[in-house]
């Protein structure tokens, strides 16, 4: 795909990671099925699309508390009010549509890149903060690296993301590689951001002209999103566990029990143990979701990945340890779902091939709905097995020109449900799902 179709540069990777990922997408099995040129083109599209946000934001609705139609209406009103406050505009149009295949998911288009004129005053933020801005967030003070020397509250500024991680905190005139993400208004003086004795927090820059218009869900209908069924959740990071508990409380769900625990050690050896929390006896669960720690190379937008190859490859052994635990905890006749948000073979299809080899009790199962692409060639899986997997590959259907016109507006009318629904299953982050049955 020609580079001029992308408003952002391709994701920056260390050379060793670039070569590793290229070999994944141009492996022998792929080349036996398609030409070298076609495989290379797919890889280059991947690098381009990863630096851009998806064309849609998907919202999971709590349909146990209200109907999808009521949530759709209330969400539209909330977002309309939010945009009116941010843009001071009276003419606000908010498009929200139900997902065509998933009954409790709503879709909102992400509009952009928009024709935003850059200002002379520049604020530099970290790459992670810049990515959050492209998904609708304001700039929180901890993410700010550099500001004009005399920036005061109320100043209009342009926000740039530091692409190479070379901007030092407190810089006044950064000259490194950066990318424009939109305009905002300072909510703090420079001195409050960099000279405070206390840890800085709160919104530092309120975005009023983001390059991509994407809804922010901070504080929007907190009790009507992210429905779960009955769940025992394990995570070894205490902060994540606390957020799970807070979300469950906000959603009025008393069926979620979250524990701060290392999942690798979640199977107890003492069969007589009778406690509510982990570790658990073998075959305790009807269903297990292994949402595995991964390299995260499918996340969008992501303009730079600073990890080296050793770090990228460190997840496969950890995932296999977790797989052993998950299989032991699952009852016979139970379902195990394995998922990642990365695009490598080693963490996705190769893990499936390894699991089928290691655990004869596991068989792949069809997934419903099946809205992603099939698995990727290269791990020795049969065509039938690949068809049972779901690999969401944004590079297969992504085109910057298709979703965004030359003037920054969508080339297709957002109020038309057909093109939006069409992109809902394609213009996603890169992620992977495999479903197993334990016999």
UniProtKB/TrEMBL annotation:
Catalytic residues (positions): 341 (nucleophile)
GO molecular function, one term: RNA binding
Keyword terms, alphabetized: Methyltransferase, RNA-binding, S-adenosyl-L-methionine, Transferase
Boundaries of every SAM-dependent MTase RsmB/NOP-type domain copy: 228-439
Record: residues binding S-adenosyl-L-methionine: 235, 270, 291
A biological-process GO annotation: RNA methylation
Stretches the record annotates as Disordered: 402-422
InterPro entries listed in its UniProt record: MeTrfase_RsmB-F_NOP2_cat, MeTrfase_RsmB-F_NOP2_dom, PUA-like_sf, PUA_sf, RCMT, RsmB/NOL1/NOP2-like_CS, SAM-dependent_MTases_sf
Family per similarity comment: Belongs to the class I-like SAM-binding methyltransferase superfamily. RsmB/NOP family.
Record's protein name: SAM-dependent MTase RsmB/NOP-type domain-containing protein
Source species: Oncorhynchus tshawytscha (Chinook salmon)
């Amino acid at each position: 795909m020609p580079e001029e179709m992308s408003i952002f540069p391709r994701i920056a990777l260390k050379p060793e990671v670039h070569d590793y990922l290229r070999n994944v997408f141009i492996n022998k099995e792929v080349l036996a099925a398609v030409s070298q040129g076609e495989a290379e083109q797919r890889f280059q599209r991947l690098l381009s699309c990863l630096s851009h946000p998806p064309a849609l934001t998907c919202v999971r609705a709590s349909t146990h508390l209200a109907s999808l139609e009521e949530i759709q209406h209330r969400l539209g009103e909330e977002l309309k009010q939010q945009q009116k406050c941010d843009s001071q505009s009276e003419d606000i149009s908010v498009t929200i549509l139900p997902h065509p295949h998933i009954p409790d998911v709503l879709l909102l288009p992400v509009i952009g890149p928009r024709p935003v004129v850059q200002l002379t005053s520049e604020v530099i933020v970290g790459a992670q903060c810049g990515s959050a801005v492209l998904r609708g967030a304001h700039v929180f003070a901890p993410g700010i690296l550099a500001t004009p020397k005399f920036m005061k509250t109320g100043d209009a500024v342009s926000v740039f993301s530091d692409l190479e991680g070379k901007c030092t905190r407190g810089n006044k005139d950064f000259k490194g590689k950066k990318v424009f993400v939109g305009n905002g208004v300072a909510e703090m003086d420079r001195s409050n951001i960099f000279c405070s004795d206390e840890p800085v927090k709160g919104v530092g820059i309120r975005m009023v002209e983001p390059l991509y218009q994407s809804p922010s869900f901070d504080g929007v209908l907190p009790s009507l999103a992210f429905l779960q069924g009955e769940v025992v959740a394990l995570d070894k990071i205490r902060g994540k566990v606390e957020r799970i508990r807070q979300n469950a409380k906000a959603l009025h769900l008393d069926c979620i029990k979250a524990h701060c625990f290392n999942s690798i050690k979640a199977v107890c050896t003492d069969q007589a143990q009778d406690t509510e929390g982990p570790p658990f006896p073998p075959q305790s669960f009807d269903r297990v979701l292994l949402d595995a720690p991964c390299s995260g190379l499918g996340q969008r937008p992501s303009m730079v990945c600073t990890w080296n190859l050793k770090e990228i490859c460190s997840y496969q052994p950890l995932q296999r340890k977790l797989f052993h635990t998950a299989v032991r905890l699952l009852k016979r006749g139970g379902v195990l779902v394995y998922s990642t948000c990365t695009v490598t073979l080693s963490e996705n299809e190769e893990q499936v091939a390894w699991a089928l080899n290691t655990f004869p009790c596991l068989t792949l199962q069809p997934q419903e709905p099946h809205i992603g692409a099939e698995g990727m060639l290269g791990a020795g899986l049969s065509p039938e097995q690949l068809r049972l997997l779901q690999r969401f590959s944004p590079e297969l259907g992504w085109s910057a020109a298709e979703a965004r016109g030359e003037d920054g507006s969508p080339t297709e009318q957002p109020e038309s449900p057909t093109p939006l629904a069409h992109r809902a299953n394609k213009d996603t982050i890169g992620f992977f799902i495999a479903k197993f049955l334990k016999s």
